[in-house]
Each structure stands twice: as structure tokens, then as C-alpha cells.
Design goal:
The protein is α+β, with helices and mostly antiparallel strands and 65 residues long. The radius of gyration is 16 Å and the shape is elongated. It starts with a strand and ends with a helix.
Length: 65
């Protein structure tokens, strides 16, 4: 969920809330799309309940191990 976008000295700064599971591979994608010039900072903000369908998948995968 994008919180804000602002131009700052020729760069675009985007502030967003993203589930951690969606961030894997982000650095590679971003650098590829920005020709290696893109940067990002990631820090925990809040904890939220996992949606039921994802929780069920996690539990079934754990039972298989």
C-alpha cells in the first residue's frame, strides 16, 4: 500500500507498506529496472494477522515436514 510519493532533487521517493513475503527478490527487480541506480530501505513497521488461506498453507506445509 503506497503511503506517499515525492520528488526530491531529481529522484522519486516512494513510501509504502508491503508484506515481508512480497519483498523477496525486490532488490534485484528494482536494480534491474533502474539500471543499478535504485536504492531502498526496508524496516519493520507493524505486525498483522496472516490471512486465513495463507495461514492454512503454512500449517499444511509444516505438517508435511
Amino acid at each position: 500500500m503506497i503511503q506517499s510519493m515525492e520528488a526530491d532533487n531529481g529522484v522519486q521517493r516512494v513510501t509504502a507498506h508491503v508484506p515481508l513475503s512480497e519483498m523477496f527478490g525486490y532488490a534485484t527487480d528494482m536494480r534491474s529496472k533502474t539500471q543499478g541506480r535504485g536504492q531502498y530501505v526496508m524496516e519493520p513497521d507493524t505486525y498483522a494477522e496472516v490471512p486465513k488461506n495463507i495461514a492454512e498453507k503454512i500449517m499444511s506445509d509444516k505438517k508435511k515436514d
